[in-house]
């Protein structure tokens, strides 16, 4: 009986040491497409750590130009930008667990929501939304998110 207890304790400590060593080997991976790198912006499109991808705030832009038409087309393009980044990095919209949404005008929140929910037909991620007094390029909306990567 003492042998089994000693063996159990030894295996527990050995597995803990292996887990700690694996955690020490984890590194953040900074992601940016070639098109994004050509823009010379001061941030990464996304950072992957462990099985989570953190997508930088996305506005409704193509290159350095906002799409025209206001909150609805900007919201759609921002979500398409997020979808593209996730798919390029082994994830998808179905894996999004949290979004933070910033709107230049909270009166446009209902119009934003109509577009936003189209990208989450099944499970809705946790979300925060708030108004702001200025976004990059004069955008009406900026969205950042976190998603998991299935392995």
Structure commentary:
- By secondary structure, the chain is an alpha+beta fold.
- Helices cover 36% and strands 26% of the residues.
- A hairpin with a 2-residue loop joins strand 2 and strand 3 (52-58).
- The longest helix has 24 residues, at 2-25.
- The protein starts with a helix and ends with a strand.
Please render the helix and strand layout as text:
Elements: H1 2-25, E1 29-31, H2 34-37, E2 46-49, E3 52-58, E4 61-62, E5 65-66, H3 71-88, E6 96-103, H4 109-116, E7 126-131, E8 141-148
Parallel strand pairs: 6-7
Antiparallel strand pairs: 1-2, 2-3, 3-8, 4-5, 6-8
Helix pairs in contact: 3-4
From the structure above, extract its key features.
single chain, 151 residues, alpha+beta, two-stranded antiparallel ribbon, 4 helices, 36% helix
